[in-house]
Amino acid sequence: MPKVAPELQYSDEHEWVSRGEGNSVSVGISEVATDALGDIVYVDLPEVGSTVTAGETCGEVESTKSVSDLYSPVTGEVTEINDAVVGDPALINNDPYGAGWLFKVAAESEGPLLSAEEYASKNGGDLS
Amino acid sequence: MTENYTALYEEHKKLGASFTDFGGWQMPLKYSSELAEHHAVRKSAGLFDLSHMGEVWVTGPQAAAFLDYALVGKISAMAEGKAKYSLICQEDGGIIDDLIAYRRGEDKFLVVPNAGNAKVVAEALLERAAGFDVLVEDASAETSLIAVQGPLAEAILLRLVPAEQHALVTELKYYAAVEVPFTFDGGTQDLLLARTGYTGEDGFEIFVANGSAAALWQAIADAAQEGELTPAGLASRDSLRLEAGMPLYGNELSREGNPFAAGLGPVVALSKEGDFVGKDALAALKADGAGATSGRKLVGLKGLGRRAGRGHYPVLKDGAVVGEVTSGQPSPTLGYPVALAYVDVEHSELGTALDIDLRGKSEPFEVVALPFYKRQK
Questions:
Q1: Cβ–Cβ < 8 Å for A118, A9
Q2: What pTM, to 2 d.p., does this model score?
Q3: Owning domain of residue B222
């Protein structure tokens, strides 16, 4: 069963949100998503300085089998992207909640987010 | 559609497989990482459950003549012990399935169609058998099929075969099959071993009764040393066959398509004696230049960027649609995207620059020779 990190919040589209300093949040995709996608071979992230909108697409994640849209779970300006995953997308599979983070946003508002418990029970994830 | 489970379903569950529906069967998609499984087959060996494939026996005094009539190839010309890739077509030349026919005796053949088409093929063969002195028996439900594919496949399987019988395996040619005694589960069983596959590597396929399938699977896994053999699912099977330029029914082959457009013209024996189903239509298609000077043709496309084309994406020349992708993904072995696509014959020449419309973005591709990947012998 895919792991669900208990300290994070999740969108219905399988992005996770982690709160940092001030209104800065980090965004990644859950292990539920990486398991379903399979091995990720390409990731298209929003540009630094661009504005993302909660619930709207902001990039693509491509695996050996398929292409999926990446949805932003929050609204705000992108302040940083994870260059490491652009160069080595397998990081997203190997460590979706750590080294596989995708981008950071100065969040003005958030879309509807689920707690880890809600997300795990809805998607069959393992909270431990 | 009711879901079918192979005799190895519990083995896959034990190995932590994620499953997918394929042709009405719950099959392992992958066990861990499909990329790791793909590389394992190229570098060492992979273990596949292919029990969803069909097995139809054709026996009787007119078995060879009947298959010459029912299939597009000259099956009667095949020597005993050999195998032949062939097609079963409709009267209009449309492809019902691609399959392998094994000659197991003067009057005895085994036909192996695809999972999703097994029933249709068995029924078509039965229907076409009217007037021939043959028996058509669908043994798909009782027969399992296990494949071991990759450079270490032979060495691993030899560990289950008595030493004095090793030559049966080591001297077995590509596209040939032989009964080999396998020692497993506390006994020895003669099993049909074929040197065939769908990966572009050396490898074998073993036919076994359902009741012995799990024991054989386990015995093969136990015969391999750490790191030699990786259970491999359908995701890697698909990427392996794509690199090897092999068509997949439903993607590249269909009732709407024809063998010439699919590059399978040489499989169609128009000059064989007697009639066969689809002969007139196929002769007309050939005379028309199908896949050569008219219509579309299946080609290999190599991506010049990083993005892969996927099934049904349009293929463009100077912005105009000239074809459609049938299969595509990043090639794990080659490191660039590859795709099979039907394109208008005038744009099918090697080296032609084409684009694939990736959901609104054009990505550059080039027509290249098939297969994309060929193993070093």
A1: no
A2: 0.91
A3: 4-53+142-242
Residues 6-45 of A with CB under 8 A from B: 35, 38-39, 41-42
Q: Say which CATH number the domain at B309 has.
A: 2.40.30.110
| pLDDT of amino acid A82 | 98
> In this predicted structure, what is the pLDDT of residue A119?
97
Check if B310 contacts A (Cβ < 8 Å): yes
Residues B79-87: contacts with CB under 8 Å, at least 24 apart:
B79/B103, B80/B104, B80/B105, B80/B106, B81/B176, B81/B177, B81/B178, B82/B175, B82/B176, B82/B177, B83/B175, B83/B176, B83/B177, B83/B194, B83/B196, B84/B175, B85/B175, B85/B267, B86/B267, B87/B253, B87/B259, B87/B264, B87/B267, B87/B268
Q: Do B158 and B46 belong to one domain?
A: yes
Bridge partners of B21? B26
Contacts of A64 in chain B (CB under 8 A): 34-35, 235, 239, 329-330, 332
Is residue B44 domain-shared with residue B148, that is, in the same domain?
A: yes
Which chain A residue is nearest to residue B329, measuring alpha carbons?
A64
Q: What is the pLDDT of residues B175-233, one digit of tens each?
A: 999 999 999 999 999 999 999 999 999 999 999 999 999 999 999 999 999 999 999 99
Residue B359 has pLDDT above 90, yes or no: no
Q: Burial of B273 by CB count in 10 Å (0-12 exposed, 13-18 middle, 19+ buried)?
A: exposed
Of B206, B224, B242, which residue is a domain's last? Answer: B242
Question: In the predicted model, is pLDDT for residue B289 greater than 80?
Answer: yes
pLDDT at B1: 57
Instruction: Examine the pLDDT at A63 and tell me if it is beyond 60.
Output: yes
| Domain count within chain B | 2
Q: Does residue B306 belong to the interface with chain A, where contact is any CB pair within 8 Å?
A: yes
**Which residue among A35, A42, A67 sits closest to B306, beta carbon to beta carbon?**
A42
pLDDT for position B91: 98
